[in-house]
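User: Just a sanity check before I run the rest of the batch. Below are the structure tokens for the first item. I only need the designed sequence back.
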């Protein structure tokens, strides 16, 4: 087709040929032309030579690129070709660089980390919590930035912002999740170094040593009875067995065989199957719980299909019940109930109370650690590898002794009450 001066009006007027693709050269700029497809779609392109070889460079569709813009891009491409540089290759390299730039955006690296590392390697609960920390605190802050551009100063600013907002241990969890994600990027050579090097979590955490007193153990048990199942019963089993909160809360009936509870490896912190003998009191407690139809048969559930998870609100009700009971006891004893206070405590303190109580009852430390499913202290290192004996009989004696002690505390409180 003979070259014609392309104008805004002529570009609009050109009609498609249903039989073939049309290329309409521009007389104003040789090498630049309008392409009209049989479908009616229009676009712009440039034809040129580099080192004697014919090449084609597609500019883009019309009207996204109007005539003026397309002609300007074509002029730059032709000038580049005249200097021996292939604009097509330059465009392809730029596109590749753009894709690479998107690949190392923090938001993309978070997604890659979750899919390639957290989900395949982490326990479901940990993977879920770590992803939530990254999505809620790291991605909003750095998501659109290239990961290699995040500096130590940025990490320090994040730490300060988290602690200024009132976060304490939570700020440390965010720091740890972000550091792990950056280490993943480092291992994949997405970055050459990590800004977390030499930095410590923002908040110093001291190891808790809270152990409930005998009076508090009685109050917890009575308050748990007042609150009722499923939360109250879960608290009582936490106290009787010394197991972790989530291990008890996610307990299913298929894990219990008579007076033996088997916690499967995927549900334990150290990924080792754990056998927990159930004392007579613990077995009786479980047997008395109502059954709710549903799969997979959670024991501590409100729906039958999911374990309880409203720990904060339920714990608040338990604390309120403890205070009410303590004040009622004080009033009966002729003391001022308004002066009664309950020292703050956490559900995890029940685990420490159980282990301390068993030790006070004369149970050997290695048996107490076996009850807790610890592979540290007296059962650590090479000993933990070769000592596969689970001390089942010894654990049964220890937990039965502890349950009897708790029962005596409850009975003593009832007599005094």
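Assistant: Here's the designed sequence for the first item:
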């Amino acid at each position: 087709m003979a070259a014609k001066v392309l104008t805004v009006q002529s570009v609009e007027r050109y009609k498609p040929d249903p039989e073939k693709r049309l290329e309409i050269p521009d007389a104003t700029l040789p090498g630049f032309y309008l392409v009209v497809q049989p479908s009616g779609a229009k676009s712009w392109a440039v034809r040129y030579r580099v080192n004697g070889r014919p090449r084609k460079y597609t500019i883009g569709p019309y009207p996204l690129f109007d005539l003026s813009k397309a002609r300007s891009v074509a002029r730059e491409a032709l000038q580049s070709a005249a200097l021996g540089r292939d604009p097509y290759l330059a465009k392809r390299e730029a596109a590749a660089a753009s894709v690479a730039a998107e690949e190392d955006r923090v938001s993309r690296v978070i997604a890659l980390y979750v899919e390639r590392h957290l989900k395949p390697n982490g326990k479901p609960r940990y993977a879920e919590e770590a992803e939530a920390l990254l999505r809620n605190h790291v991605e909003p802050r750095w998501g659109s930035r290239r990961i290699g551009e995040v500096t130590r100063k940025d990490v320090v600013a994040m730490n300060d912002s988290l602690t200024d907002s009132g976060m304490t241990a939570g700020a440390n969890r965010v720091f740890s999740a972000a550091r792990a994600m950056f280490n993943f990027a480092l291992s994949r050579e997405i970055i050459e170094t990590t800004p977390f090097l030499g930095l410590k979590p923002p908040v110093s955490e001291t190891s808790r040593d809270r152990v409930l007193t005998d009076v508090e153990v009685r109050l917890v048990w009575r308050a748990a009875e007042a609150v009722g199942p499923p939360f109250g019963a879960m608290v009582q089993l936490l106290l009787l067995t010394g197991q972790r909160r989530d291990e008890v809360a996610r307990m299913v009936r298929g894990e219990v065989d008579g007076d033996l509870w088997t916690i499967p490896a995927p549900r334990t912190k150290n990924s080792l199957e754990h056998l927990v003998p159930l004392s007579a009191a613990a077995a009786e407690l479980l047997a008395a719980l109502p059954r709710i139809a549903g799969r997979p048969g959670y024991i501590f559930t409100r729906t039958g299909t999911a374990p309880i998870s409203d720990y904060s609100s339920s714990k608040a009700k338990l604390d309120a019940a403890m205070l009410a009971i303590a004040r009622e006891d004080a009033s009966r004893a002729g003391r001022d109930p308004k002066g009664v206070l309950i020292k703050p405590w956490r559900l995890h303190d029940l685990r420490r109370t159980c282990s301390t109580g068993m030790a006070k009852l004369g149970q050997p430390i290695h048996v107490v650690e076996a009850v807790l499913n610890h592979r540290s202290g007296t059962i650590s290192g090479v000993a933990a590898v070769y000592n596969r004996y689970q001390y089942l009989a010894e654990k049964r004696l220890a937990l039965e002794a502890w349950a009897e002690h708790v029962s005596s505390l409850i009975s003593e409180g009832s007599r005094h009450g």
